[in-house]
């Protein structure tokens, strides 16, 4: 790779979107676990 090559970084907007999706996925996973615990409790 040459020093003159452009950086292989996504634009700021894309990075923000990826961070938001990661947070949403984590929140969804926690909500699923909580729902299973609540529904599994007699």
Automatic annotation (TrEMBL):
InterPro entries: MmpB-like. Keywords: Membrane, Transmembrane, Transmembrane helix. Pfam families: MmpB. The chain crosses the membrane at residues 20-41. This is Uncharacterized protein.
